Amino acid sequence: MHNPHDKRFKELFFNKKAFISFLRDCVNEPWAYKITEDDLRKTNSSFILQDFSAKEADVIYEASLNGKKVIFYILVELQSTVDYRISYRLLLYIAEILRDYYNKADISERDNKTFKFPAVIPVVFYSGSETWTVPTNIREMFENFDGFGNHVLNFEYALVAVKNYTEEQLKSFYSKLLSVIFMFENSRTSAELSNNVMEKINLIKDFDQEEMRIFIETLEILDKLYGSDKKASVKVLLEEQKIEEVEAVMYDIFENDRIEREKLFAKGKLEGKLEGKLEGKLEGKLEGKLEGEEIGERKGKLEAAKNMILENMPIDFILRITGLSKEQIDGIVL
Known about the structure:
By secondary structure, the chain is an alpha/beta fold.
């Protein structure tokens, strides 16, 4: 995993109840309701392609459906922008999965005319804020694809975009853990995230041991983001069912974040005011002061963004917190 968010989502999907909920509530195909937790088996395989090694986070499950093996391949796409090569990447992964299956099969079986490959179900999990505009099939990547009918290679992947789920939809999820984590991702500001956590605190306190462990992983992300060390104390308080104290600690996390960000912005704004006043005095223009204030505020946001980048926070999260554009983030020199 290349950043803590990748690890958090992989841990989430390795919770069988959350994964079943993911299939039923998000992929939402009839066959998804026929699979139970007992049917699922996590695999240790990971297919990281050299050309895309810096981008990938994947989860692979095998399942038995009507007595037949099926393989679910989940590509966790945490980029802030839409990737138009996604179908090509999935094609390479599917080929690798089938090649691996074939090579591991008994030679006498794979040479038999009755030999069958398992179905591979590709799913893209997307947590970015931009609307996903890429076709969910591969045939549209080929020139003149519509001129050759069914002779052009094709498959479709299931797309699960977090931002598409409303509060009402999240409430109905089979897995409350999945619902809470999706809510985290849909929070646009730290204040909104704080409020959402408080609203879900009664769900969180009812998590089983495995769900609580994964939730604590999420708190570790918050610690990294807000420069605090609250994970351990929140864990103890949740285990002891001291919900009111949990609320106080969580409030402290977000309040400290708000104060620190305001300090950063204020510092940048002050520097900008001084620069603006000097420029205005030298040029004899009021615009110098106003422009300096704007520059200062922007400097404060850029400094906050730089700190989050150094903590390996996803670009999409930084965009939401600072309000900066992707071009401004890309221009930051570390």
